[in-house]
Write a structure and sequence with these properties.
By secondary structure, this protein is an alpha/beta fold. The protein contains 10 helices and 11 strands. It has one domain: Rossmann fold, CATH 3.40.50. The strands form 2 sheets. Strands 2, 3, 4, 5, 7, 8, 9, 10 and 11 form a 9-stranded mixed β-sheet that branches. A two-stranded parallel sheet has the order 1-6. α1 crosses α10 and α5 packs parallel to α6. The longest helix is centred in the C-terminal third of the chain and has 22 residues. It starts with a strand and ends in a 13-residue tail after the last helix. The structure holds adenosine-5'-triphosphate and magnesium ion. The site of magnesium ion has 5 residues, from α1.
């Protein structure tokens, strides 16, 4: 098994911020907008949101890719019912995995449990040696370097949107912004005081790195009854609306808890295709509409993002 070791991020964000100094270029050259899906806290639903937002954008006619930037714990492929091909990367371009709805997906493919690593970030002999050891050796690989390579060498082709599903933590957006030119970030959070406070930090980091915050997604807001479609309280409420207002950031969606989403993720089925009539599926389509609108606005007038007039209620 390989662990991507995280070097301490430098104390301050590069002043060139979202344009990044180490942007690899090649892999993203055909990508119109790379959007980070970030959160300060773990387990708030970033990956589930990424997959369903990607699907909703694709169903609306956009060409969409996903980069699973959670290198040590990737789960986007599994949520889409896909397996990473077993192959060694030793310097050549990486072809993304073709997913449903034309999605193009890149992931570290790091598989737990002693499976051979499908993509090794080691070069030449070291890569072959690692694979010949059947992936059982523990190798420490530099996280940022691996991410930079995955981003730079994946042949995403022409995409309208590349969603980048980050590992949890405030520092993840900070490190990505140094590597990739980002059109914006979507910050996923939950209705709790801790999550709301942490979200303030995430907004602050985005600002420090000059990454426009496209908006917030508040997940697991109430419990959606499958029978009567009523929504009841689930988690204690943090005051996200106040944070969003104070920071001038839009809340793009307030998503209810629906156990069928968790089941769909586990089964590798796209929720919005399996349950198109559910309130949550409609929320995802509305989120996609707002994200597309915001990206269009940002492309026309960079740095003008603030609370959207049509944000989620
Ligand atoms: N609205 C929801 N209703 C029901 N289940 C949900 C909802 N949102 C997310 N989940 C489930 O909660 C779990 C955590 O979600 P997910 O893996 O997307 O979080 P994450 O933020 O990506 O986690 P990590 O920080 O570890 O990357 C998953 O099982 C997912 O299917
Ligand atoms: Mg995740």
């Amino acid at each position: 098994m390989r662990i991507f070791r995280e070097r301490r991020a430098d104390a301050e964000c590069d002043s060139r911020g979202a344009r990044g100094t180490a942007a690899p270029g090649a892999g993203l050259s055909g990508v119109r907008a790379a959007v980070a899906i970030a959160s300060a806290k773990g387990g708030v639903g970033k990956s589930a949101v990424t997959v369903n937002l990607a699907a909703a954008l694709a169903l609306a006619g956009q060409k969409v890719g996903i980069l699973d930037a959670d290198l040590n714990s990737p789960n986007v492929l599994a949520m889409l019912g896909l397996q990473a091909p077993r192959r060694v990367f030793a310097g050549e371009a990486i072809e993304p995995i073709a997913g449903p709805l034309g999605l193009r997906i890149a992931a570290s493919g790091l598989l737990p449990g002693g499976e051979p690593p499908p993509i090794s970030f080691l070069d030449g002999d070291a890569a072959h040696e690692a694979v010949s050891r059947n992936g059982s050796a523990l190798a420490e690989l530099d996280y940022d370097d691996a991410l930079r390579r995955l981003l730079g060498l994946t042949n995403f082709g022409a995409l309208d949107v590349l969603l980048i599903d980050l590992a949890p933590g405030l520092e993840q957006l900070f490190r990505l912004a140094r590597i990739a030119p980002l059109a914006g970030a979507i910050i996923v959070t939950q209705p709790s005081d801790f999550a709301v406070r942490a979200t303030r930090g995430a907004i602050e980091i985005a600002r420090l790195c000059s990454v426009p915050v496209l908006g917030l997604v508040e997940n697991m807001v109430g419990f959606s009854c499958e029978g009567c479609h009523s929504v009841r309280p689930l988690l204690p409420h943090g005051d996200l609306a106040a944070v969003a207002a104070a920071d001038g950031v839009a809340t793009l969606a307030r998503l209810p808890f629906d156990s069928r989403l968790a089941e769909s993720c586990d089964r590798g089925v796209i929720f919005i295709r399996a349950y198109p009539e559910s309130p949550l599926a409609k929320n995802f389509h509305e989120l996609a509409r707002l994200v597309a609108l915001r990206l269009k606005a940002a492309a026309a007038e960079p740095h003008q993002l603030s609370s959207a007039p049509e944000e989620a209620g």
